[in-house]
Amino acid sequence: MIGYTTLGTNDLDRAIAFYDALLGVVGVKQLAKTERMAMWGEEMGKGMLTLCKPWDGEPATVGNGVMVALNVGTREAVDRLYAKAIELGGSDEGAAGERGQGFYGGYFRDLDGNKLCAFCLGG
Asked: How far apart are CA 102 and CA 17, in angstroms?
């Protein structure tokens, strides 16, 4: 159902370096790039993540209550992605762990303050 999610950045080059390294941990690659945006995913049009400079020219800001959740398939992938986010300078919003009802997730913020969750369902 979701084609892509967009997060804002004030430093596109820094954001690209962060997400190339972060998403590479789970085999996701950059699919497109322009002077204003970059897009990652496994395939165009299917669950992509986009980072862009705001089109209105104003500074990017973090939305209160906004979060992007990335289903990475396994607990091991959650652990690796969460650890990589912290290693790259992201900030902890809740270490990877069981959250009940078969949900395992780790929460972090990227270098621009956007909140993400790496998660998997089941064992």
From this structure: 32
* Domain interval for residue 90: 4-54+61-121
Q: Are the CB atoms for 111 and 90 separated by under 8 Å?
A: yes
Contact call for residues 109 and 122 (beta carbons, < 8 A): no
Side-by-side strand order, sheet with 68-71: 68-71, 115-121, 103-109, 91-98
Structurally, the chain folds into a number of domains equal to 1
pTM score, two decimals? 0.88
Tokens of residue 19, six digits: 């997400």
Here the tokens at position 88 are 């790259």
Burial class for 73, CB neighbours closer than 10 Å (0-12, 13-18, 19+): middle
Which pLDDT tens digit goes with each residue over 57-105?
A: 999 998 888 999 999 999 999 999 999 999 999 999 999 999 988 999 9
